[in-house]
Amino acid sequence: MESVYHLGLSREMIKEAKFAFLPGDPQRVPKIAKTFDKNAIKLAYKREFRTWLGKLKGKMVLATSTGIGGPSTSIAVEELAQLGVHTFIRVGTTGAIQKNIKVGDVIITTGSLRFDGASTHYAPIEYPAVASYEVVSALIHGAKTTGVDYHLGITASCGTFYPGQERYDSFSGYVIRKFQGSLKEWQKLNVLNYEMESSTIFVVCSTLGLRGGCISGVVVNRTEQEKVKKEVVVLAEKNATQIAIEAMRYLIQNRTLSH
Ligand code: URA
């Protein structure tokens, strides 16, 4: 029973699971897994990678945390793919940059700006970071069934929380020229939000022939303020999780993949 290096999982342990939720935060793993249909079980916890296993619609499903950012996220997707997983839904949090988006709403990303580094190790920068059309459709279905306000569109996926997302409330207060004025530019170009993992997931999945999607709960609107308030995180996580679960049920029920 050989385990993959970082996740501490083997094919036997994951019981042929093909579907995985990918929160960034390890603490979100049990929260997601507790909403599965059957009693979920803990499988492994190494570094930032925590995994629980359970069932949805009669199929085995995983929740595995990716940690923050591209490098650890690419490892999670890679090693789960090596174990046979083909469908991934990131369940994350995000900062919105358009005025009409409220905290607690969710954003379903259709494609991402590639301001991560890890995805460039899988494909040149001209290669688009796009979500799986099937996963996006399932997430829209999920959002409609839950009634949560959702927004569909393009995300700026960044390798840093502070300079890459043009935050000046940092240690130095300095943002390099490349990112000065970038928030305003993304607003003008109809980018909806910032987060840190979707571009890696989309490029790794597309290049490997896997399906990847991303739903994020809005924890701050940068047109109003910079600081994330703890109480809104709970609501944003709950809404994103509920929709991701509904979407996964839909994908399992309406199987369109040949493998
Ligand atoms: N995650 C991010 O990457 N940015 C935010 O503003 C909030 C959550």
Helix-strand blueprint:
Layout: H1 11-14, E1 19-23, H2 28-33, E2 41-46, E3 49-56, E4 59-64, H3 70-82, E5 87-96, E6 106-115, E7 129-130, H4 133-146, E8 150-158, H5 182-188, E9 191-195, H6 198-208, E10 211-221, H7 230-253
Parallel strand pairs: 1-4, 1-5, 5-10, 6-8, 8-9
Antiparallel strand pairs: 2-3, 3-4, 5-9, 6-7, 6-10
Helix pairs in contact: 3-6, 4-7
Structural class: alpha/beta
Total domain units: 1
Write the CATH fold name: Rossmann fold
What is the mean pLDDT?
A: 97
**Spatial sequence of strands, sheet with the most strands:** 5-9-8-6-10
Q: Radius of gyration over alpha carbons?
A: 17 Å
The sequence of SSEs as H and E is HEHEEEHEEEHEHEHEH
- CATH superfamily, please? Nucleoside phosphorylase domain
Strand proportion, as a percent range, falls in 25-35%
Q: In CATH, what is the class?
A: Alpha Beta
The set of bound ligands, ions and cofactors reads: uracil
| Main sheet summary | 5 strands, mixed, barrel
Query: What's the tally of helices?
Result: 7
Strand runs, count: 10
C-alpha termini separation = 23 Å
**CATH-scheme architecture:** 3-Layer(aba) Sandwich
